[in-house]
Write a structure and sequence with these properties.
single chain, alpha/beta, globular, disordered N terminus, 7-stranded parallel sheet, two-stranded antiparallel sheet
Length: 351
């Protein structure tokens, strides 16, 4: 079940529904899990979600996505220390990058680097899971996360089906799942066997029409009160006084977290490489949405510099920039070649 690959290909996604799997469990455990999954699968196919599942969305501009994710996670674990959170991402490279950030990012109390001793931004354990990991590493992550009382799992859709992970409190869909059925499969990892659960979907302003697509399938989400959560965090050791609302992007806490992220990525060579790889693979995955969703998830609507900021990069990776410039130059050359030919064709009838 964890041996499945997840390169976002339709054939591989459909294979996840088949009975043939690489199991990590004994035959008896696999039989019990199979029966339980059949029940969950039937509910998913009918788009029936448990009443005890609280479903919400948060609208975030592209450049602030990672700072907001870190803030949401920090808020979750400060509110309830003992819990499990699963964060779904679109690509393997993105999982590797976010796993590194969530598990290694350090900050100083009040975000004053020169005065306070640094500590982990998130104190809980962080695991990763995706199809490009070898079988032993997948098994270690799965069993490790399952046995913890308080932990985060960052993963691709390889963890959306077939896994029985107990006591998952919250599902965060940081990257949109695409089809409504994929959304339901993901949130199906929580609120199981009568227990309460939460689901949070990240959306950029240009993606907000995705909510309508979900509503067509009977899935309705309410807005997450992020501003209230945000105002509860101290800046420079002090909680902000009541004042006029300011935009999320300009909030002192978000600006401070973003600055911490960018300094970390700039100073760590390995993290910087992971960020660049994740940036490129995320863009490729973003163009892979199918059908009507292509009208919602359009790369041309994005500011690539802001996308880079969402990976802690101060500048857009030059490799992607050069590739776009090369394509533009090729188009201009092709247009110049076509113009003389078109002029000649127009002059021929006049002779």
């Amino acid at each position: 079940m964890i041996g499945l690959d997840d390169q976002n290909k339709p054939s591989e996604r459909s294979s996840a529904l088949g009975k043939k799997r690489t199991s990590l469990l004994s035959d008896d455990e696999e039989e019990i899990l199979e029966k339980r999954n059949d029940m969950v699968q039937h509910a998913v196919d009918d788009f029936k979600l448990p009443a005890q599942l609280v479903q919400r969305y948060v609208k975030v501009s592209c450049g602030s996505r990672l700072a907001v994710l870190l803030t949401v996670l920090k808020s979750q674990f400060e509110r309830q220390v003992s819990q499990k959170v699963v964060v779904f991402l679109s690509t393997c490279d993105s999982v590797d990058f976010h796993h590194t950030v969530l598990s290694q990012l350090e900050w100083s109390r009040g975000l004053q680097v020169d005065t306070d001793k640094k500590q982990k931004f998130l104190s809980c354990k962080v695991f990763r899971l995706h199809g490009s990991m070898d079988q032993e590493d997948r098994k270690k992550s799965y069993l490790g996360f399952s046995s913890e009382k308080s932990a985060i799992l960052v993963c691709t859709d390889v963890a959306a089906r077939g896994l029985d992970i107990p006591k998952v409190k919250c599902i965060i869909q940081y990257d949109s799942p695409g089809e409504a059925s994929e959304y339901v499969h993901r949130v199906g990892r929580t609120a199981r066997i009568g227990e309460k659960g939460e689901a949070l979907l990240f959306l950029q302003p240009v993606e907000i029409d995705y909510l309508r697509d979900l509503e067509l399938h009977g899935v309705s989400l309410t807005e997450y009160p992020f501003q209230k959560v945000l105002d509860g965090f101290p800046v420079n050791g002090e909680k902000p006084l009541k004042r006029k609302p300011i935009s999320l992007d300009m909030h002192p806490w978000i600006l401070s977290v973003q600055r911490t992220l960018e300094n970390y990525i700039a100073s760590e060579a390995e993290a910087n490489k992971l960020a660049r790889d994740a940036f490129c693979s995320w863009l490729r995955a973003y163009t892979a949405h199918r059908g009507e969703l292509k009208k919602i998830f359009m790369v041309k609507k994005l500011h690539l510099g802001h996308v880079a900021r969402s990976f802690g990069l101060k500048e857009q990776p030059s490799l992607v920039g050069r590739s776009h410039q090369v394509q533009l130059k090729k188009r201009k050359k092709e247009q110049k070649r076509e113009r003389p030919n078109n002029n000649k064709r127009r002059k021929l009838p006049a002779k």
